[in-house]
Amino acid sequence: MQVFFEKRNIFQGIIAYVKGFENLMNVLPTVVRHSIRSLMELQEDVLIILDKMLYIYHYFFIVYIFWFFCRFFLIIMWF
Predict the structure, then answer these.
(1) DSSP labels for the chain?
(2) Between 79 and 49, where is the model more confident?
(3) Distance between CA atoms of residues 57 and 67, nearest Å
């Protein structure tokens, strides 16, 4: 009798898991649709932030290249 109840509990757990997965699959397209809509609304702000980040990165890259050439010419002039 105990084995029957254990198997029944396992099957109930599997059925609950499958039902939960079905509910997740039903809800998931709505979540994706809302997140895409939110991303489209935030797109302009994100592009502005990325533009500023790229500008700052470009500035540091120019400074780094300038520093590299200064060291290079100092080493050459030293010899």
Answers:
(1) -HHHHHHHHHHHHHHHHHHHHHHHHHHHHHHHHHHHHHHHHHHHHHHHHHHHHHHHHHHHHHHHHHHHHHHHHHHHHH-
(2) 49
(3) 15
What six digits make up the tokens of 60? 């540091």
Q: What integer pLDDT is reported at residue 63 of this predicted model?
A: 80
d(CA 15, CA 9) in angstroms, rounded, equals: 10
Residue pLDDT, tens place only, 24-70: 777 777 776 777 677 677 666 777 777 777 777 777 777 877 888 87
Residue 31 token pair: 């979540």
